[in-house]
Here is the input.
Amino acid sequence: MRVLVLSDIHANITALEAVLAHADAIDAAWCLGDLIGYGPDPNECVARIRQLPKLSCILGNHDAAALQQIDDETFNPEARTAIHWTRRAISEDTVAFLNALPETIELDQVTLSHGSPRHPIWEYLLDVRTATLSFEYFNTFYCFVGHTHLPVLYLMPDDGQYARLVIPEPEKKIELQPRAILNPGSIGQPRDRDPRASYAIYDPDASTWEVRRVVYDIRAVQERMTQAGLPARHIQRLSAGW
Ligand code: ZN
Here is the structure.
């Protein structure tokens, strides 16, 4: 079984389409939130994600901000400008879909949370200490997270003392042992200095995880962002991957 794990699409339909073409046949799609925010194509991305087979999808902080569920004062000024643009751009259909998304989903062996299992919308898992604490907050073998836009794994050894950070090599299958926290990276705005869209294929039968990277037409997205009047820094960062 091939599960497409996608996160932080950030209203970038060009990157999303490139990922879907690259991923080939999939049996299910698990989306870890931040479908919108930053990018120029919020409605297109939501419509495309809704068509994916056996979709499980959770809410991200940018989705919640666009829905006015959280205060935009917590974002920096440029992110706030993008949120205000997004609020004006999203259709009723998009709002209705995002409004119905849960903060976490527990599947057979996997918990889905945007930020962390402890604080699903907000917490960033950026270090081993925070990741180690997070293992107390989910009961499944694995927890899939997004939010940092960095493809990483935190593996918990049998002694359960400290999680171990692993940066996965793209296009290389990793055999998983319970338990682990896994981040597929970001489709629409990678931040590991590699501008290619990042996603993962999870095979629950074989217990494997593979992070994959795909080139897409960044310039086309930047042109649409310029036309939309979105912040210059968000336009520039796409080509540098940060
Ligand atoms: Zn994000």
Notes: Residues 8, 10, 34, 60, 62, 147, 149 surround zinc ion (CB under 6 Å).
